[in-house]
Every structure is written in structure tokens, then in C-alpha cells.
Write a structure and sequence with these properties.
single chain; 70 residues; 2 helices
Length: 70
């Protein structure tokens, strides 16, 4: 089982990947030789955004991560 903080971290990583794929989609759309890749890049961005949303939803259901003090 993962902790809330781990799920938050996974959500952040997935959101960053979604943003990167969105930027690549935009670049590909502007370049005539890469327009064939736009649909696949957009799909990848959407998939990572969905993953981020799922991890955030899981994190919201988990108890707050407790830190131990040494």
C-alpha cells in the first residue's frame, strides 16, 4: 500500500509528464514534418493527465502521511 505522500508525488510526476507531452504536441503542430505525430502526442498527454488525476484522487482518500521524529 502506498502512502498519501507517495500518491501526491506520483500525481506531480504524472502532471509534469502531461505538461511535457502537451508542449511537444504544440511544437509538433507547428512543424509541418511532425504533424503526423500530433494525435499520438496529444493522447499521451491526456493519458498522463488522467493518471495524475487518479493519483490525486487516491491521495485524497488516504490518511495524511505522518512523519516520525527521531
Amino acid at each position: 500500500m502506498t502512502t498519501r505522500q507517495e500518491q501526491i508525488n506520483l500525481a506531480a510526476e504524472a502532471a509534469a509528464l502531461a505538461a511535457n507531452f502537451a508542449k511537444e504536441t504544440d511544437r509538433a503542430a507547428q512543424h509541418p514534418d511532425m504533424r503526423a505525430k500530433v494525435q499520438n502526442l496529444a493522447a499521451a498527454s491526456t493519458a498522463w493527465a488522467n493518471a495524475a488525476q487518479a493519483h490525486a484522487a487516491i491521495a485524497a482518500l488516504l490518511p495524511e502521511t505522518e512523519t516520525t521524529r527521531g
